[in-house]
C-alpha cells in the first residue's frame, strides 16, 4: 500500500511547490461581516452571503421552528417519503418568486447547486444532444456536461458570435446553451438577452446558473433573468440558496413539463436523501425578506459598496476586473505573490481569499473580494488601508 501513499504525497508536494495547496479555515462564529476564524477576529470578504442574511435573526428563528415542526432530517428521498410540506411550500414559493419568465412555472428544490446543475444537464441531454458551454462556466456545469454524454462545444467567454456559428453548424435535435449568469471568479454578467435570441432562433434550451445573481439582481432580487426582463419557454433558471438567500440548497425553475421530466429522470434528484426540511422552511422565510422592503434596502447598500470598491481597486497597482456585481476580483498574477498578499491581509484581520489555478487561468491568480450588505463603509476603509500599505511597501 505504501507506493500508493507515496504517489499521493508526491502529488501534494508538487501542489506545495507551485503554491496550489488549499487549506480550510475554521469559523468559530456565524457567517457575517465580522467573524472569528481560526480563533482570530477578522473582517470577512470571503463568503457569498451577499445580502448578509446567513445570521439574520428571522432566519435563525425560522430554521429552529422548522426543526421543531419537521424534525432533524427528512428520512428518505423525495420520492420515497422524504418530501415534506416544507419542501412543497418552498417549491410553490420559488415558482411564484422566480417563474415570471414562463407560463405555468414550477420549481424543484435540491440539496445543493452542484446537484441541481448535474441533474438538469444529464436529464435533458444525452447521446445525440449537443451542449454549448461558456468557457468560464462553473465546474458543476462542466461536470454536468461531461456526465450527460452529449457532444460538448465550448464557446469563448460571452462570445455570442462564436456561439451563433456553432449553433448554425449543428444538426443536433436537442441543443442546450449553458451559462452562468454572474461568473463567480470575474463578476461579469453573461449577455443573456442575446443568448436567448440564439436559443429561440436555433430551437435550443437556454440553461442559466443564477447562483450569484439570485437575490441580488432584478426587481425584488428575483435574479438575472428578471433583471433582463426576459420571458421564454426556452429558459431554464437554476439558482442556489446558500448565497444571497443565506440558508442552503438550490432550485430549478422552468415550465412545469420540464420540471416533471426532472422528477422522473434526474438521477441526482431521485437517488439522494431529501435535504433537511427545516432548511426549506427557512428559505421560504428568506424569500419574504429578499422580496420585501428590507431586501431592497440591503441591495441598495450593497450597490453603494460595489461602486466604492470599484474605485478603490482602480487605485491599486494591480488589475481589477470590470465587475458591477458583489464579486470584485483583483488580479495579482503569480500564485506566490497572491498568497503572500492574502496572508499579509489576514495578519491585518482581513480575510480575502487567494484564487489560483485551476479555478482561474495560469498567470491570473487573484484576490476575490466578496461584498455583503452586512459590510460597513468602515470595513472598506480597513480593506483600503491594508491594500495601500501593501503597495506602498512594494514601491
TrEMBL record:
Residues 41-383 form the Aminotransferase class I/classII large domain. The keyword DNA damage does not apply. One of its GO terms (molecular function) is pyridoxal phosphate binding. Signal peptide: none annotated. Its EC number is 2.3.1.47. The keyword Acetylation does not apply. Its cofactor is pyridoxal 5'-phosphate. InterPro entries: Aminotransferase_I/II_large, AON_synthase_class-II, AONS_Archaea/Proteobacteria, AONS_Proteobacteria, PyrdxlP-dep_Trfase, PyrdxlP-dep_Trfase_major, PyrdxlP-dep_Trfase_small. GO terms for biological process: biotin biosynthetic process. Pfam families: Aminotran_1_2. Pyridoxal 5'-phosphate binds at residues 113-114, 184, 212, 240. It catalyses: 6-carboxyhexanoyl-[ACP] + L-alanine + H(+) = (8S)-8-amino-7-oxononanoate + holo-[ACP] + CO2. Keywords: Biotin biosynthesis, Pyridoxal phosphate, Transferase. Substrate binds at residues 22, 138, 359. Catalyzes the decarboxylative condensation of pimeloyl-[acyl-carrier protein] and L-alanine to produce 8-amino-7-oxononanoate (AON), [acyl-carrier protein], and carbon dioxide. This is 8-amino-7-oxononanoate synthase.
Amino acid at each position: 500500500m505504501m507506493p500508493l501513499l507515496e504517489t499521493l504525497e508526491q502529488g501534494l508536494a508538487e501542489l506545495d511547490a507551485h503554491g496550489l495547496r488549499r487549506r480550510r479555515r475554521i469559523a468559530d462564529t456565524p457567517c457575517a461581516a465580522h467573524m472569528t476564524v481560526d480563533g482570530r477576529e477578522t473582517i470577512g470578504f470571503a463568503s457569498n452571503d451577499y445580502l448578509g442574511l446567513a445570521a439574520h435573526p428571522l432566519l435563525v428563528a425560522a430554521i429552529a421552528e422548522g426543526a421543531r415542526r419537521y424534525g432533524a432530517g427528512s428520512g428518505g428521498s423525495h420520492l420515497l417519503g422524504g418530501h415534506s410540506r416544507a419542501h412543497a411550500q418552498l417549491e410553490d414559493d420559488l415558482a411564484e418568486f422566480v417563474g415570471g419568465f414562463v407560463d405555468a412555472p414550477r420549481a424543484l428544490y435540491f440539496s445543493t447547486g452542484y446537484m441541481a446543475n448535474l441533474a438538469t444537464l444529464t436529464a435533458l441531454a444525452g447521446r445525440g444532444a449537443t451542449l454549448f458551454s461558456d468557457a468560464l462556466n462553473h465546474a458543476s456545469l462542466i461536470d454536468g456536461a461531461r456526465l450527460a454524454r452529449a457532444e460538448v462545444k465550448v464557446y469563448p467567454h460571452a462570445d455570442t458570435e462564436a456561439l451563433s456559428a456553432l449553433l448554425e453548424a449543428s444538426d443536433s435535435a436537442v441543443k442546450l446553451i449553458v451559462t452562468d449568469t454572474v461568473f463567480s471568479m470575474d463578476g461579469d454578467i453573461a449577455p443573456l438577452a442575446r443568448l436567448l435570441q440564439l436559443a429561440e432562433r436555433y430551437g435550443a434550451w437556454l440553461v442559466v446558473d443564477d447562483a450569484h445573481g439570485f437575490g441580488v439582481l432584478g426587481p425584488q432580487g428575483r435574479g438575472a433573468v428578471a433583471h433582463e426582463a426576459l420571458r421564454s419557454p426556452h429558459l431554464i433558471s437554476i439558482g442556489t440558496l446558500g448565497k444571497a438567500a443565506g440558508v442552503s440548497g438550490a432550485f430549478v425553475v422552468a415550465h412545469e413539463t420540464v420540471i416533471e421530466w426532472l422528477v422522473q429522470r434526474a438521477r441526482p434528484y431521485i437517488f439522494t436523501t431529501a435535504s433537511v426540511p427545516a432548511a426549506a422552511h427557512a428559505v421560504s422565510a428568506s424569500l419574504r425578506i429578499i422580496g420585501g422592503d428590507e431586501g431592497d434596502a440591503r441591495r441598495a447598500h450593497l450597490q453603494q459598496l460595489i461602486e466604492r470598491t470599484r474605485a478603490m481597486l482602480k487605485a491599486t497597482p494591480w488589475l481589477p476586473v470590470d465587475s458591477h456585481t458583489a464579486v470584485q476580483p483583483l488580479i495579482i498574477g503569480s500564485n506566490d505573490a497572491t498568497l503572500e498578499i492574502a496572508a499579509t491581509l489576514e495578519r491585518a484581520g482581513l480575510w480575502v481569499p487567494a484564487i489560483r489555478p485551476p479555478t482561474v487561468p495560469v498567470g491570473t491568480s487573484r484576490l476575490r473580494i466578496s461584498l455583503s450588505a452586512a459590510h460597513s463603509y468602515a470595513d472598506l476603509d480597513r480593506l483600503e488601508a491594508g491594500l495601500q500599505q501593501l503597495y506602498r511597501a512594494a514601491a
